[in-house]
Specification:
- This protein is mainly β.
- It has one domain: Calycin beta-barrel core domain (Lipocalin, Beta Barrel).
- Helices cover about 10% and strands about 55% of the residues.
- It contains one helix and ten strands; from the N terminus they run αββββββββββ.
- It has a ten-stranded antiparallel barrel with strand order 1-2-3-4-5-6-7-8-9-10.
- A hairpin with a 2-residue loop joins strand 9 and strand 10.
- The protein is globular.
Length: about 140
């Protein structure tokens, strides 16, 4: 297998580790609620998350593109908010544990959550030095009109 083939395989395997996120989820946490939706971009090069949350009375909306970073060998993302902010995260989904770091894997700010046996609920918490909050994400079955 050539280097480019092995890199493509590593990229595909890493991205596909996030398959269980695909769908629409209801998010509830300390002083926050809303929905997030994960879907594959055409060609499966990126997983796209659309966010519509209200936290502490303020709307948080935006879109996040999650893709493979060959330099760090991690799943990195860029979140673009409707307020103009651009934030970076790193994702890892191993077994039933989802970890999302703000920035890189050396960041003290991160979310760690665990999926239930059916894969339809993830319960965890965002934590950072001096703070954090609990969050539950429940798969929302869409009803056709």
């Amino acid at each position: 297998m050539s280097t480019s083939e092995s890199q493509a395989q590593a990229r595909q395997e890493a991205l596909r580790s996030l398959d269980r996120l695909v769908g629409t989820w209801r998010v509830e946490g300390t002083n926050s609620a809303g929905t997030v939706r994960y879907e594959w971009m055409e060609g499966d090069a990126f997983l796209i998350q659309t966010i519509d949350l209200v936290a502490d009375g303020e709307a948080s909306r935006g879109v996040e593109y999650i893709g493979w970073d060959p330099e760090s060998q991690t799943l990195r993302s860029h979140f673009f908010s409707t307020s103009g902010e651009i934030l970076e995260y790193t994702y890892d989904l191993t077994g039933d544990t989802l970890t999302i770091w703000f920035g890189g894997t050396d960041s003290p700010a991160k979310f760690t959550g665990t999926f239930d046996a059916g894969g339809n609920r993830n319960t965890g918490a965002w934590q950072w030095p001096g703070g954090g909050y609990e969050s539950t994400m429940t798969r929302h079955e869409e009803v056709a009109p």
